[in-house]
Amino acid sequence: MSLTVVGSIAFDAVETEGGKRDRLLGGAAVHFSLASSFLAETRIVGPVGDDFGAAEYAVLHDRGVITDDVEHVPGGKTFFWAGRYERDVNIRHTLQTDLNVFETFEPKLSQASRDADVLFLANIQPDLQRAVREQCAGARFSALDTMNLWIDIAHESLVKTIKTVDCLIVNDGEVKQLTDEPNLVRAARAVMELGPKVVVVKQGEYGSAMYTPEGVFGLPAYPTADVVDPTGAGDTFAGGFMGYVAAHADEEISDGLLRRAMAYGTALASFNVEAFGTERMQTLTPDEVNERVQELARVTVFDASPVPLRA
Amino acid sequence: MSLTVVGSIAFDAVETEGGKRDRLLGGAAVHFSLASSFLAETRIVGPVGDDFGAAEYAVLHDRGVITDDVEHVPGGKTFFWAGRYERDVNIRHTLQTDLNVFETFEPKLSQASRDADVLFLANIQPDLQRAVREQCAGARFSALDTMNLWIDIAHESLVKTIKTVDCLIVNDGEVKQLTDEPNLVRAARAVMELGPKVVVVKQGEYGSAMYTPEGVFGLPAYPTADVVDPTGAGDTFAGGFMGYVAAHADEEISDGLLRRAMAYGTALASFNVEAFGTERMQTLTPDEVNERVQELARVTVFDASPVPLRA
């Protein structure tokens, strides 16, 4: 039942056509854990500085996220990211990245975090991800995310780390870049040859795809007219996905279970984008999440009965 | 039951990483009608030159396509398009476009074509599309495709034409450009405000989405590792979609029927890309098509039963 996530805890400054916020709670591990908290008890591991205070902890604690392994670096400043989205929110410009306490981060997991049933390695340097994976050797299901930077400058280490996890959860462009294969089916197969049995590909506004030994699953994004701030959508998706796996510890991790996990990830991500930062996730209710999964089923269903065709 | 398509009949020269062909049968109306021929009797309307011979007619006739309204322009040459696809076949470069007989094309429909139950206006100049629409005033269901060129240089005429049809079938980028709205849900709504009750958005490798008064439908593309030549995939999709509507004349055109139509369009398009030009469609069998629709259902299905969530 227990889930550990290791990754960034951040303050974000976000500009969109509709508004501007200077200091939003953010970071991959934060977005992930707020989503996963709807499904499973979640332990978050990552560094923060002196500027990370009671208000920020409260957002996590209100969702039951266990922050024992949040490492406070005295005298340090929390990771900071600033970005601007164009009117087409699919186009994002990074304006500033200050690693701050993240620069010297060496994940130290408590025994409780090491005992995790399910482990998610959010996007950090792949050597660090591998060190965490080694500390959580007993995890029943492990996954990692990464980014173009590591694919470029730490390819060998990244591949070594990918070999140690059950599942890769990355963007469309990243899996193609990682494998140097522009066709998604082939790219996913190439990842599976490295080791992971499951490849989950995030496709932004188009949805997501999953490759398992049992087949391929494709799921559109939940169609929403109101995208306020897409920051953290991918991490929220991963949180719902991994949380679902953690919540169903009594079930075999089948293709069917992972499909349901994808639906919960998709539903949760669709809420995350409806407001700035973590604002929407803070007010979200379980009923809203389940209702959106049902709506997603209505969005995707069709009758495939064969019809007479002309030879 | 009868379906009329008006649009280009062409010779294509296509270069890919895997090969090069100098003279393939192509054109929107050809790709469309080969697909729709699996579902409904199809009449193709478009001009050809002296270079369009028995071999080309045979491809259409072998699929039962009625070519009575193919207009032979004596002394003319058939529309010619040359393009190159990168290793990532989602990136296409047009190398040459010779309008030839298309330059002076004025669609003249026989009574049989005018009596069409279902009408598809493939991508041609919107004034011409509107003239055809007026000739087929009795069609039970009509749709049109267009392109960025007409959105740019004939916007007013295009909007006037869109108002006259039941359905718009265009690419993702085109519907956003047409409506100046980067969010797909809002873009589709904006089109529906112009008149069409149905908006179908083609998203290439990601699949397609449909907006009707009853809701939104999202369908991934059929996952294929073997894309040889994507030329005509969108027209093939439209052919399957419109063919399905034409084939079910006894049914109300409901959201459910149109979803099934999308599945047939998607399945047919996935075959079209497996070989150059029309080659794969020429050998395709009804059983293969129905089987792929079933596979598409397996690719998209998931269990949306609500689960206990943590408050």
UniProtKB/TrEMBL annotation, chains A, B:
Record's keyword terms, sorted: Kinase, Transferase
Domain Carbohydrate kinase PfkB: 20-279
Name of the featured protein: PfkB family carbohydrate kinase
Gene Ontology cellular component terms for the protein in this record: cytosol
Domain of life: Bacteria
Example of a GO MF term: kinase activity
Gene3D superfamilies for the chain: 3.40.1190.20
Keyword Transferase listed: yes
InterPro entries: Carboh/pur_kinase_PfkB_CS, PfkB_dom, Ribokinase-like
